[in-house]
UniProtKB/TrEMBL annotation:
It comes from Streptomyces ficellus. This is Replication initiator protein RepSA. NCBIfam families: rep_init_RepSA (NF041486).
Length: 467
């Protein structure tokens, strides 16, 4: 499983627990459970069991109980999307997001999205936050405003040149209202499309539809920005072609004009010392690029876009130096060692909380004020994460039926099996020794995936996406 030197480097408590686990009679089954979760870092523990019954004869076809499992529990994957919490489940979530976004770019007929959408105008748009004060950056071949040429990955990148004049309150309020800015953007986008087509909004809706899939990402300065695939469809969605006037140029111009119109006003609160309204808007750096079909020589391909969106679907504010869980007070930020810039942003959330209690800024301080969904899509963009997960669940259920010798209900509709289940939550997480085992299982699986990716790339002559 691993070399002796790695085991020897463990702390005494972990090594002691690992030896206990390795010497237990259910070690092989425990390892199998961990592997079935993909090396989940914090699995959910369930106790109980299931029975498969023939409803006609009441015969028990199969029975399972956790009483015979190691520790008397069944471990199932936690399903957390955050890579900082569980890299194994985040990998699965990223894969599902990749296929969801890709299905909206190349089609997935088996999932209700025809492959003719490749002919629809579609772009990859990036909407960012405005400036809240100058920060250290890498402006091409020129030195930063501070006079220094910062290397890639320098810790000062994204931090303010002068934190005492940086608008921390405006930054966290912007993050907090980012989802509303996006909502207004989608409203104005449809209006701008209608105006450029010379139609009423009703007529434009009757002839076309806008579909999108987006993901949120944190910049180094701690501001959220959105990457979105935006696509023109016909009036009935992806199954119908867009009208002749629904061009790529019209879509691009409408996106830029709609973003420029958006305003969200946060009223002043003089009682708490905030005497001026905040007028929140998108930043001037709006990037809109057409998406080309894979293999046609375009810089921005379908595969690249889907992989980019999936990459950031599992990340959150912890990439800026914050923590991935709520924090109750400012003193805890010092104890947790949060760097100066993200700490000031989190403190701003706490300072604003009493003035704007409906915004729940203190509760979302660890997210620098952002409280929206990281990955969203319009209803008809493509398939859903739930549908993708159901396909995976059906596949595993079919494997189990085959292993038990039970008939396939699709082949034998007259064969009905009654499932009686009883499950009780029994905790979550691993012991120290089990955590070490899970980390090694996850590492081995990742190594195997990377090896498979290299082989597939050689055989297919392309970069097949595997995290």
């Amino acid at each position: 499983m691993t070399d002796t030197a790695t085991v020897a480097g463990l702390d005494p408590a972990t090594l002691s627990d690992l030896l206990r686990v390795a010497g237990s009679p259910g070690f092989d089954r425990l390892t199998e459970q961990i592997r079935r979760t993909g090396g989940c870092a914090a699995p959910i523990r369930l106790s109980g069991g299931t029975k498969l019954l023939d409803p006609a004869t009441k015969t028990v076809l199969h029975a399972y109980t956790t009483g015979n499992e190691p520790g008397g529990v069944l471990r199932v994957a936690c399903g957390n999307r955050r890579a900082s919490r569980c890299p194994a489940c985040a990998w699965t979530y990223a894969g599902d997001t990749y296929h969801l976004i890709r299905a909206g770019l190349i089609g997935a007929p088996d999932k209700g999205t025809p492959d003719t959408i490749r002919d629809h105008p579609r772009v990859f748009a990036t909407l960012t936050a405005p400036s809240f004060g100058p920060v250290h950056n890498r402006p091409g071949n020129h030195p930063c405003r501070c006079g220094t040429r910062h290397p890639e990955g320098a810790p000062e990148l994204g931090t303010p040149l002068d934190p005492y004049v940086y608008d921390y309150a405006g930054a966290v309020l912007w993050n907090n209202h980012a989802s509303e800015l996006w909502r207004y953007f989608t409203i104005y986008l449809r209006r701008e499309i209608a105006a450029r087509a010379g139609l009423t909004q009703k007529a434009a809706r009757e002839q076309s539809r806008i579909s999108f899939g987006k993901v949120a990402e944190y910049q180094k300065r701690g501001a959220v920005h959105f990457h979105a695939v935006i696509r023109f469809d016909g009036p009935e969605g992806p199954g119908t072609p867009p009208p002749a006037w629904a061009t790529l140029d019209l879509l691009t111009a409408a996106i830029r004009a709609a973003a420029a119109r958006v305003r969200v006003v946060v009223p002043a609160n003089e009682e708490y010392g905030f005497v001026n309204d905040w007028v929140l808007r998108w930043g001037e750096q709006i990037d809109v690029q057409p998406i080309g079909a894979f293999g046609n020589g375009e810089d921005l391909t379908e595969q690249a876009v889907a992989a980019y969106v999936a990459k950031y679907a599992t990340k959150a504010a912890e990439t800026t130096g914050t923590v991935d869980h709520p924090v109750g007070n400012k003193e805890a930020l010092i104890l947790l060692g949060v760097p100066d810039h993200p700490r000031r942003l989190m403190e701003a959330c706490m300072d604003l909380d009493a003035a704007y209690p409906d915004r729940r800024l203190r509760a979302w301080a660890h997210m620098l004020g952002f409280r929206g969904h990281f990955s969203t899509k319009s209803r008809r963009y493509s398939t859903t994460l739930g549908a993708l997960r159901q396909v995976r669940a059906d596949y595993r259920a079919a494997q189990q039926r085959q292993a038990l010798g039970l008939p396939d209900p699709d082949d034998h509709p007259e064969s009905t099996v009654l499932v009686v289940a009883h499950w009780v939550y029994a905790g979550h997480g691993h012991t120290p020794g089990e955590s070490w085992l899970a980390a090694n299982v996850r590492r081995d699986l990742q190594h195997n995936r990377e090896h498979a990716r290299e082989i597939r790339a050689e055989l297919e002559g392309e970069n097949t996406w595997l995290p």
